[in-house]
Design brief:
By secondary structure, the protein is mainly beta. 6% of the residues lie in helices and 25% in strands. The protein is built from one helix and six strands. The two termini are 22 Å apart.
C-alpha cells in the first residue's frame, strides 16, 4: 500500500474537532495526535492540529523527543 501524502488542504481537515482525527505535520511526516490527552479537541498550548508545526516544535520544551511515541500516518507536501 502506498504511503498517504497529505497536502496542506487535506491536513487541515484533521483538526481534532467534531469527531475528526487530529494530525500534525513535522519535518515532512504526518503524526496522529488524536489520542494524546494534551491534544484534546485538537489544541495543545495554543497550537492547532491540522497544520505543519515544524517550526513550532523547535520552541517546545520537549522539542522532538515526543515524536518517537507517535504514529506516523503519512508524509506532508505543502503544495
Amino acid at each position: 500500500m502506498a504511503e498517504k501524502i497529505f497536502t496542506k488542504a487535506e491536513l487541515a481537515k484533521f483538526d481534532g474537532k467534531n469527531g475528526n482525527k487530529a494530525y500534525v505535520a513535522i519535518d515532512g511526516a504526518v503524526y496522529d495526535v488524536t489520542n494524546i490527552p494534551q491534544w484534546a479537541e485538537g489544541q495543545h498550548h495554543g497550537h492547532v492540529a491540522g497544520q505543519d508545526l515544524s517550526e513550532a516544535i523547535t520552541q517546545a520544551p520537549h522539542k522532538k523527543s515526543v515524536l518517537q511515541k507517535l504514529t506516523v500516518v503519512g508524509k506532508y507536501s505543502a503544495e
